Amino acid sequence: MGTARSALAKMRYCHLLQLLLLGYGWTCTIIATPINITVSHLSPTVSYTPSRSGDSENTWNVTYIDPQDAPNNGSIGDGPSSHYTTFNDASASLGFVGTAIYVYGYTNGSTDDVSLRIDGQKLNKGEKDGLLGWKEGLKNQWWDLAVNVTGSGGVGIQAITFTVNFGNKG
Question: What is this structure's pTM?
Answer without folding.
Answer: 0.76
